[in-house]
User: Fold this.
Amino acid sequence: MIRSADAVATAKRDLREGEILGRGGIPGRRPSHAAADSLRLGALPLGLASRLKLARPLGQGDPVLWSDVAWEAGGDAVRLRREMEEDFGHSARQVA
Assistant:
């Protein structure tokens, strides 16, 4: 059973380096991962995948990772999510 999950940004078509991501998706399709798996993978949450510049090309269906985007310019929501991920990562390592 998944306790918590993230809706993960996923390329709905082939994307080129330098493209600006928009929000949206395929109706009815919500790729999700268990939160711990999303954190381990470094996946970009779907809700934050707007107006971020793609740093490398991606193929259709590929998950978008934090390392795939220039997130530093993403604003307060992105900064807060990254802080939360850092805190969660430390907590998860202490429990393991």
Summary: The two ends are 19 Å apart (CA to CA). The mean pLDDT is 78. The first strand starts at residue 5 and ends at 7.
